[in-house]
Amino acid sequence: MSAPGERSARVTMKDVARSAGVSLSTTSRALSGSGYVAETVRIRVRRAADELGYVVDVTARGLKQRSSLVIGVMVSDLRSSFYAEMASGAGRRARQAGYTMMLVEDGGNRLGELDAVNALVGLRVAGVVLTPASDAAADFLRRRRVPVVEVDRVFGDGDAVLNDDRAAARAATEHLLELGHRRIAFVMDETEWSTARERHAGYVEALEAAGLVPEPSLVVTASSEAVTDDVRRLLASSADPTAVLAVNSSIAERIWRAAAELGVGLPDRLSLIAFDDARWMRIVEPGVTAVAQDAARLGAEAVSMLIERISDPGREPVRVIVPAAIVIRGSTAPPRAAGIPARTV
Question: 68-162+294-324, what's its fold?
Fold first, then answer.
C-alpha cells in the first residue's frame, strides 16, 4: 500500500497479464479486441483489468503503431436525438475498426467549432468527422493535413456523407399535395447550411411539378429566437396556409406549440410534417408525420469514410447519399374546404 500522499504506480498491461495468468500478447489481443482470444480468457483478462484499474493509453498505443488510433467526432448539439444517434453510430463503427472516438459538441457555430478542432488537433487525432457550422473547421483541418469528413451538411468539395435532403423534401411536399393541400408553408431557421437549401429546393420542385407557383409569403426564414413569433404571425395571417413543412424537429416543435396557442387544431385546421423524427413526435397527440433520417447510419458511414481517407490520403473525394423515409402519422390529413380563417396575434 502506498504511503499517505504518495502516488501509486500506474498499472501496466504486464500487471494485467500477471493477474489474469496469461501472456502479454494474449492480454493485448483481449483488451484491444483484435485477434483471436477464447471468450473465457477475454472475460478473465478484462475482469483483471477492471479490478486493477488498468486504462489503455491510446496515445502510447498510437505512437507504438506510428499512427493515432483516436478519431474526433464533432456534433452541433447533443441535446438533439439526431446528433446523439449520429454519435452513437460513429462510436460503434470506430470501435469495430479498433479506434477510440473522442466526442465534442461545438454548439453549431463558427467560434465553437474552431475551438473544438484546435483541441482535437492538439490531441493529434487521426482524423475528424464533423457536422460543420461553416467552412472554417474543415479548412482548418485540411490546411494541417488532418483527414476530415463532413456529415449531414457540407460546405466544401471534400468527403461527405449526406441525407438525400432534396428528394426527401420533395416527397414530403408531394405527400401534402396528394392530400389536397395547395397552400403549403415552408419554415426554416437559416439558409447558410446545405440542409436547409436542399430541403427548400425540394419543396419548390414539388410545387412547380404540381403546376403551382411558390409564394414568398409562405416561406418563413428567421433566427431560432424569432421563429416562434414569425410562425405565430404566419398562422394568424391572410397567407392562410393549410399545411406546413418544417425544416427540422426544433422548428416543428415551435410550430406545434404556436398552433396550440392559437387554437389551430392538427390536422383538422393545419397539417404538419417535419424533418428529423424526434421522439416527441411519436408521443404527442396527434403524432407528427416526419421525414425519418437514419442518423446512426450517417455517423457509421462517415467514420468508415474517414478511416478509408486515413489509409489513402490521395484518393479523390467521395460523397455518400443516404435516403430518408416518410413516417405518416396523424398530423397530416386533407385540408378543410374553407381553409383557416385569419386571426389576430
Answer: Rossmann fold (3.40.50)
